[in-house]
Amino acid sequence: MTSRAEQLDPVVRTRLVCPQDHGELIDAGDELYNPRLRVAYAIDESGIPNMLIGDARQVGDDEHARLVGEKGEDGR
């Protein structure tokens, strides 16, 4: 099963950037993630990304590490 981020039109996906810092976003399942600001933008069931700054979700340390592939202090 593919994620909503993977289902985005490739042309549209290459043009999507974070509305706050205009930087690259990471595909994160049903969201697009900005690791610099640690915010996630939801993609709805229709495949439309919600890029409104006020609707962005803050991401905590553990989830951030998982999304960017970093190892925690315990090595996991």
The termini sit apart by: 25 Å
- Can you give the mean pLDDT? 91
Q: Compute the number of helices.
A: 3
Overall form: globular
Extended strand count: 4
One letter per element, helices H and strands E, the order comes to: HHEEEEH
Q: State the helical fraction.
A: 10-25%
**Order of strands side by side in the largest beta sheet?**
1-2-3-4
Instruction: Determine Rg (CA atoms, Å).
Output: 13 Å
Classification by helices and strands: alpha+beta
Q: Quaternary status of these chains?
A: single chain
Biggest β-sheet strands, sense, barrel: 4 strands, antiparallel
Q: Low-confidence segments, ≥5 residues, pLDDT <50? A: 71-76
* Strand residue percentage: 15-25%
Describe the model.
The protein has helices spanning 4-7, 10-15, 61-68; strands at 26-28, 31-34, 39-42, 57-58. The model is unreliable at 71-76 (pLDDT under 50). It has a 4-stranded antiparallel beta sheet. The longest helix has 8 residues, at 61-68. By secondary structure, it is α+β, with helices and mostly antiparallel strands.
